[in-house]
Amino acid sequence: MPRRHKFVKYFTNTPDMALSSKRIAESTVRRLSMYLRYLEGLDESGQKTASSDELAQLCGTTPAQVRKDLSFFGSFGKRGLGYPVHELSTRLRDIMGLSQAWQVVIVGAGKIGSALAEYRGFRQRGFKVVGVYDKNPDKIGRPWGEATVQNISDLASDVLTHRVDIAVLAIPADDAQDVVDLIVAAGVRAILSFAPTSLHVPPHIAVKTVNMAMELEGLSYALTNRGD
Amino acid sequence: MPRRHKFVKYFTNTPDMALSSKRIAESTVRRLSMYLRYLEGLDESGQKTASSDELAQLCGTTPAQVRKDLSFFGSFGKRGLGYPVHELSTRLRDIMGLSQAWQVVIVGAGKIGSALAEYRGFRQRGFKVVGVYDKNPDKIGRPWGEATVQNISDLASDVLTHRVDIAVLAIPADDAQDVVDLIVAAGVRAILSFAPTSLHVPPHIAVKTVNMAMELEGLSYALTNRGD
DNA sequence: GTGTGTGAACGACTTCACAGCC
DNA sequence: GGCTGTGAAGTCGTTCACACAC
Asked: Which of the two residues, B81 and B227, has the higher pLDDT score?
């Protein structure tokens, strides 16, 4: 079977590189997200520049890694000085697509979904909950934050008539693939799943899975087989 | 700064390999966890054997990967037949350390923690919540599942007097490092953090971080720079 | 014939190390 | 002197391909 693509293309927008494209590794994108978090903190505290060394320290990586990651998108740094904090933040937000608002639906009106929606960074980063769905009749119609829980049977038609960029799946593993098929058919192109199962999607759909069970079991393994 | 170790040693317990040790990649351990999940499903449904092809299909990986992963721990499969479902499940549970009970404390009496504790697989896999802590006076003393929320200032002494294997951190990023230092000093050796920040720990401590913000931003990046 | 086990080949990410610029 | 940018080298995980066992 085809493996899910690990890379996406990044089209630069500097004049001299207008037609070039680069594959950026998923691990790099994750670090960019981290750099951005800390850069914004530095920016707020009034710091003007930051070296690759400082960023590496904050993010738990190496200076060489920081420089390599940032170099994929151009030369932001000044040799001998470091990177301009505010400018780099702005640039990273653009690169990550965080300058725009994304419309999110949450499927599964449980605690995970509300934990996510309540998280400050969620709205701050431009993610907006435009709908919450569940299949449990007891939950349908109830208030949920600023929204009202809707019937999951309305999900597909709602996605067809309203723009939905990202679907968050906070439902049992057994239900996950069915919902995925539904929303992919309706045009959703990105999915964040908390269901502890592997999801099968067409290659152009972006999927991230957060599997808490897997993380815990990873710790169990580490405790059991720790290098003494 | 030292990078966190990516590997742990696994000491085999077959007679002829008693003294050998192998480094198992983190990615392999994650897949073992997935194999186990599906093997238990197959076992319940009464299936006796499963081929690497079948497991790969279920888990979204490749047959070669499955065989390689399992071969690190010995030869379980029968050539021409596949792997014995029940036996392999048992073996994987042992390897992952899931045959024993782990004592878990949850720091931060919010929704993420309760979502985790409510999750069926949590207890089923032998993870037992032995304490819930918060620093918010409004929450301290309130019932929380079968437990009562305790004052976070009691955490360190409780960890010293009771066995705690794993600490789950469901607290704001700004508080995370302080709590980590506290519990590591008190002897906790494994941490699952939901705080969107990088944690600094001594090399012998196992840490997994689940960063939902990072996952969402990864989707934002993919949507923005999708390969057309 | 069917499917495992595994060394070898491959590819991808990380680290090194140094030229180049401030 | 200090720090970035980057080809080259290194490391590690994945895929291949085939001998071998049932």
From this structure: B81
For CA atoms B215, B221, B227, B228, the dihedral sign is: positive
Note the pLDDT tens digit of each residue in A121-139. 899 999 999 999 999 999 9
The architecture that CATH gives domain B102-214 is 3-Layer(aba) Sandwich (3.40)
pLDDT at A72 over 60: yes
Q: Report the footprint of strand D: residues with C-beta closer than 7 angstroms.
A: A 3, 51-53, 63-64, 67-68, 70-71, 75-83; B 6-7, 23, 25-28, 61-62, 64-65, 67-68, 78-81
H helices within B97-172, ranges in order? 111-118, 120-124, 155-161
Distances (CA, A) of A103 to A122, A132, B31, B135: 11, 12, 32, 34
Distance in angstroms, CA of B79 to C1' of D20? 9
Which nucleotide's C1' atom has the smallest distance to the CA of B49? C3
Q: Which residue of A has its CA nearest to B124?
A: A213
CATH 3.40.50.720 domain span(s) along chain B: 102-214
Record: contact A222-B190, CB cut-off 8 A: yes
Looking at every residue in chain B, the average pLDDT score rounds to 90
Please choose, from the candidates A206, A212, A22, the residue with its C-alpha nearest in 3D space to the C-alpha of residue B217. A206
Which one is predicted more confidently, A183 or A145? A183
Per-residue pLDDT band at B121 (split at 50, 70, 90): confident
The three-state secondary structure class of A45 is coil
Please give the average per-residue pLDDT across B72-90, as a whole number.
95
**Which CATH code is given to the segment(s) B7-96?**
1.10.10.10
Q: Residue A104 — very low, low, confident or very high, per pLDDT cuts 50/70/90?
A: very high
Domain with CATH 1.10.10.10 in chain B: 7-96
Minimal CA–CA distance to B70: which of B120, B104, B36, B97?
Answer: B36
Averaged pLDDT, B121-135: 94
Q: How far is A97 from chain B (nearest CA, A)?
A: 5
